[in-house]
Amino acid sequence: MQDRHRQRSPQATRSIGTTEACISTEVELKLAASAADLPELTRALVEMAPASASSHSRLISTYYDTPDLALKRQGLTLRVREQEGRFIQTVKTGEPSGTDILTRGEWEDELAESCPDPHAMQSGEHLPDGIAADLQPLFATDVTRTRFAIEPAPTTRIEAAIDQGEIRAAGSGGTEPISEIELELKSGDSAALYDVALQLLDVASLRIEPRSKAERGYRLGDEGEAGPVSVHAAPVGLEPTMTVEAALQEIGRACLAHLLHNEAAALAKDPEGVHQMRVAVRRIRSAISAFKKLLPAEDRRRVSGELEWLVDILGRARNLDVFATELLLPARAALSHEAAIDDLAAALDKERDAAYEQVERAISSERYAAGMLRLSRWFEARGWRDGPAKRSALLTSPIRELAPRLLDRRWRDVRKRSKRFRRLTAPQRHKLRIAAKKLRYTMELLGSLFDQDDLQEFMTRLKRLQDDLGYANDVRVAHDILPELCAGARRGAVARAGARLLEWHEQALARAERKLSKRLNQLNRAAPFWHERGTATARSGRVRT
To answer: How far apart are CA 440 and CA 523, in angstroms?
Structure first.
């Protein structure tokens, strides 16, 4: 970046000083709450902060970007906030759908007027050059904020804020209510944020809100309404010099961010939102399994318990979605002569509706909210630390030394389960599919440590095999689902239509058997790149092993 301190335009004189300009990070946990519960939550926060009076203020914040959303594409947000006659410009960094729901960079300047100043001393330094003329207001937030200072431990300070108001899109755009609690860490351990959140959960229903007000505002501006969208997992940014436990923490944060960012889409009955939540849970379980020798058995059982019931509920909805989109839809034209095919589709829709109601109840439950807070706290506090000296030594060793061994274990399992493939029974092929999936998840979670070309070449072969094995598993699961769809008045006709549907897919599977064997042979011929190429760093190239 050029030395912009020496090339400032006269516009820079509008910046009249800096607030506490943050040149490191903002660490904040956001919690969504019902507006009806805010009075009770306010009383709870008053009890937590008896020595300090609460403060009230109205905050009007306008968010700016260019017409082509140049700032959003670079992971930046720019706002000017009016508070008690002062104007504070803030630039924040960090992708809203990234791998860390707590931490973002933040820089602030006090301005003389409400217009943004791209040349301001602290915040402007982090904006792209040449955007001043293109900035325009996109949306605004208008909230009443009540602040509390909490000191849960002698060295820990947290600012709790209750925000109530709305987001408004520019022009004649839509609005969305704001009803949330922000817990910002001023000093101490970030795990304390989750401790406070769990105390508040005893008072009222809460859930972690991974979306910033900016992300919600952008979505409102895009659609004129707050339509949630599903998101895929963001890459996990590991460095070879990281310790094993730092890498595990980063992986846990990334998986939880992926899970939480898909809640809204799942609640809106978006099949991809449910699918991505299920993938996120499986990635967490895969990570725990990969690192299991370094984790206390009690912790592994507890984490598994937090997630197992959720996997079952998400899995039910996902299996019905797959039946509808991957099995019924492709075959429907070929089976149009089956009189009961429409009845089968109607019965399937009814089951899907019931499954999505279960998903909604689960995500909205206190059990889910508490589980996500406890799991987040475990990763944040590195709760696995208490253990034998040997395990502690491994946790503090470089991840680049352990990663190849973790992949070796997954790869050996795939190779073992794929022997004499043509003779494998359906349950045995199912176990091979699970082993391949675990290998893929582990590769994705550790992938940033390795040469990306080699990684993608191997992943392509693995994904092809997974897709083919997955199709066979979808048909297997459909055999279990079909009897549940045959409970209506025309159950005989529906059963016949379902049987014809499965027969159609069994024939397709038989035709694809040779291709499946070819996929497996291609994968088995692939060299384990994690030994050939070693790990890589983002800046200094590859580290050969």
So the answer is: 12
Cβ distance 196 to 160 under 8 Å? yes
The two beta strands, 15-17 and 175-187, are unpaired
Q: Are residues 221 and 263 in the same domain?
A: no
The CATH code of the domain that includes 525 is 1.40.20.10
Contacts of 45 by beta carbon, 8 Å cutoff, 6+ apart: 54, 148, 150, 160, 162, 200
Please list, in sequence order, all residues whose beta carbon lies within 8 angstroms of the beta carbon of residue 516, skipping any fewer than 6 positions away: 421, 465, 468, 469, 472
169: helix, coil or strand?
strand
Q: Quick one: pLDDT at residue 164?
A: 98
How many angstroms separate the Cα of 203 from the Cα of each of 40, 48, 484, 508? 7, 12, 40, 55
Residues of the chain with pLDDT under 70: 1-24, 94-98, 223-227, 389, 488-489, 532-545
Paired with 541 in beta bridges are 537
Best CA proximity match to 169, nearest among 214, 118, 113: 214
pTM of the complete model: 0.88
Question: Which residue's entry shows tokens 């599903």?
Answer: 230
Contact 66, 134 (CB under 8 A): yes
pLDDT digits (tens, 9 = 90+) for 361-379: 999 999 999 999 999 999 9
Domain count, the chain: 2
Does residue 142 lie within any of the structural domains? yes
At residue 487, the pLDDT reads 74
Tokens, residue 167 = 């987001």
